[in-house]
Specification:
The complex is a heterotrimer. By secondary structure, chain A is mainly α. Chain A has one domain. Chain A contains six helices and no strands. Chain A is globular and about 50 Å long. The mean pLDDT of chain A is 94. By secondary structure, chain B is an all-alpha fold. Chain B has eight helices and no strands. The mean pLDDT of chain B is 95. The mean pLDDT of chain C is 96. The radius of gyration of chain C is 18 Å and the shape is globular. Chain C is α/β, with parallel strands linked by helices. In chain C, strands 1, 2, 3, 4, 5, 7, 8, 9, 10, 12 and 15 form an eleven-stranded mixed beta sheet that branches. In chain C, helix 6 runs parallel beside helix 7. In chain C, helix 7 links the parallel strand 9 and strand 10. The chains are: A mainly alpha, B mainly alpha, C alpha/beta. Chains in contact: A-B, A-C, B-C. At the A-B interface, helix 1, helix 2, helix 4, helix 5 and helix 6 of A face helix 2, helix 3, helix 5, helix 6 and helix 8 of B.
């Protein structure tokens, strides 16, 4: 059942992105920024957590989930460390994803050559 | 050629009439399926860890890392771009899209050197996500701090 | 007394001979409808080099070498070399031409470069400044994507209005005296900007320039579209082709079935998934140097008007929300010296 919820919610978030790609002049980079910021602000307002509770990976795997993670990170760190948490909380929450992306991308660049389409 | 504003407006109308539109329904269906599938895979991986008594935050972290690894492997093999052509937002919006957007320039710009090529340009596509994600979370933090 | 005809055209007193041509292309073009007309088809899009940019320069170097070889001329006979491409600071051309050690004029007209080159080359010859001019233009799909759009491995979707940059190099040797076909006139285009900002719809960005140059050519020469066996724009694709047909009708000229576009001819839309068609400097360069030139030599086509079209933009200008103006140059190529 939870797999179905993850599938549907994740799918719907992607469909919103697809509509923006097809119907507006927004490039994919701008759409991703929109999604991350939206996830972050909704997370701050406490509106994204219910979606995460409901759909699990369907809410955390798409990019708004990344923004939510950063918002949650800031708020948790402020609770724990006060003002210092404001500075460290966001990137700290994103650290895992960013580090993994850097390490694997570097390895990929070592191993693979650019390919034509 | 009438390059006045009126002439340009008339021309834009003509362009709109002639330019083919994307197949929205088909694109959305494909995005829904592929995006949904990636999220389901993520849920499967998370469950694998939580059923083995890993705490939630570690399970979530390992899920991200595994999805990122898979996306980058597919990017290096030249397969992620094929998925992307088919699935559009279905492959761009999940965290795998983020990973693909870091690995692609890393592989492509290696030709210009490790430091000024790969190093400098690795985040040329994904950078805005990190910048604006950080800015937004900072904003959230300020509001949260002063509301406490 | 000025030798110009009308506002924008030059009708050559002594039409310039296109002595020979050479065309080199990449794998995708080699799978297209014009494959059999190209001199060299590379299976490897990197041409054995270690970067796209070096591949483009090597293609230029080899293709210039080929056209020279086909002409039978001594390299020293070439008075000037004109070359251009899409890469930053024309490095595709400059690194391809440097070993020739010939007087070099680098030119930029975006995808209209090939027309600009053979037009200027004809002026040099008809003006009495050269006996032989070698002119060429190139583009490379991967290098163009990397420079103008995104890394190739990025999973993006291309809209249906987008076009596919042709990988290749087309070259011609022009001569003061030689056999047909001849360049009989050259209409220099103006920059036309109708406010298009969508970098994924180049056909729409460039079509107005083609219309403007076509009407100027017909006005200056007193000719009509049906004078020519074929009129081909450079790379307007299906979208731009339709726009030009409609706008020319509004201008009072009917573009019939003799009007096509190199971007439409070079790829098979269904089998090769190239959306609106081919683009890039090489699009018109190889389509002419391969297919059209051979058709003219065989007498299948006797009078053509080649109108390469260019979109004048840079990655920076697009990011600054600047519009995308276009330019188009018309070159009339005929098997007789006619009434010049």
């Amino acid at each position: 059942m939870e797999y179905l919820k993850a599938f549907v919610v994740g799918g719907i978030i992607c469909v919103i992105g697809q509509i923006l790609i097809d119907k507006t002049k927004l490039t994919s980079a701008r759409i991703l920024v929109l999604f991350v910021v939206a996830g972050c602000l909704l997370g701050g307002l406490g509106l994204y957590k219910p979606l995460v509770d409901f759909a699990g990976a369907g809410a955390t795997v798409p990019l708004p989930g990344f923004g939510y993670k950063m918002a949650k990170g800031v708020m948790d760190e402020i609770d724990a460390k006060g003002l210092a948490g404001l500075i460290t909380g966001g990137i700290q929450a994103a650290a895992g994803g960013i580090t993994a992306a850097i390490i694997f991308s570097f390895l990929a660049a070592l191993v693979f050559e650019p390919k034509e389409k | 050629m009438d390059q006045s504003n009126k002439g340009k407006a008339r021309y834009q109308e003509l362009v709109k009439e002639v330019s083919p539109n994307s197949h929205l329904a088909a694109d959305c269906f494909k995005a829904f399926c592929v995006g949904g599938l990636i999220c389901t895979l993520g849920q499967f991986i998370t469950n694998y860890f939580t059923t083995r008594q890993y705490p939630e935050d570690k399970a979530s972290l390992y899920t991200s890392v595994i999805l990122i690894f898979c996306a980058i492997l597919l990017t290096g093999l030249g397969l992620y771009e094929k998925i992307g052509k088919f699935a559009g937002a279905g492959s761009i919006v999940p965290i795998t899209g983020f990973a693909n957007s870091v690995a692609s320039p890393a592989i492509e710009f290696k030709k210009e050197g490790w430091i000024l090529g790969l190093g400098a340009k690795m985040f040329i596509v994904a950078g805005p996500v990190i910048v604006y994600g950080t800015l937004a979370s900072f904003l959230v933090g300020i509001i949260y701090y002063f509301m406490k | 007394m000025l030798k110009k005809t009308g506002d924008q055209s030059i009708v050559f007193e002594d039409p310039v001979s296109i002595l020979c041509t050479a065309s080199t292309v990449g794998p995708k073009e080699g799978e297209g409808p014009l494959a059999s007309y190209f001199d060299v088809v590379h299976e490897d899009i990197m041409v054995g080099e270690d970067s796209w940019e070096k591949a483009e320069s090597t293609m230029a170097k080899d293709n210039f070498g080929l056209v020279l070889h086909k002409s039978g001329l001594n390299k020293k006979s070439i008075d000037f070399v004109l070359s251009g491409d899409l890469s930053n600071q024309l490095t595709g051309s400059t690194f391809g031409v440097r070993d020739l050690e010939l007087p070099f004029l680098g030119i930029f007209g975006a995808c209209s470069t090939f027309g600009e080159g053979i037009g200027l080359g004809s002026i040099l010859i008809d003006g009495g400044f050269a006996h032989y001019v070698m002119s060429g233009a190139s583009s490379h799909f991967c290098a163009a994507e990397k420079q103008f759009r995104f890394p190739l491995e990025l999973g993006t979707q291309r809209p249906l209005t987008s076009s596919w940059t042709v990988t290749g190099h087309g070259a011609a040797i022009l001569a003061k005296s030689g056999p047909a076909p001849y360049i009989t006139s050259f209409t220099v285009g103006k920059i036309i900007d109708m406010g298009i900002t969508d970098a994924n719809n180049m056909g729409a960005a460039m079509a107005p320039a083609a219309v403007d140059t076509l009407t100027a050519h017909f006005k200056d020469t007193g000719r009509n579209p049906d004078y020519y066996d074929m009129i081909l724009t450079g790379d307007l694709g299906y979208v731009g082709h339709e726009i030009v047909s409609r706008m020319m009708t509004q201008e009072g000229y009917t573009m019939g079935s003799n009007y096509s576009d190199c971007g439409i001819e070079i790829f098979d839309r269904e089998k090769q998934d190239t959306h609106s068609g081919g683009s890039g400097c090489a699009c018109s360069a190889v389509t002419f140097s391969g297919y059209l030139y051979q058709q003219m030599k065989k007498g299948q086509l006797n009078k053509i008007l080649l109108v390469p079209t260019g979109a004048l933009m840079s990655p920076t200008s697009v990011q600054q929300n600047e519009t995308i103006p276009g330019v188009a140059h018309a070159v009339a190529i005929e098997n007789t010296k006619g009434d010049n």
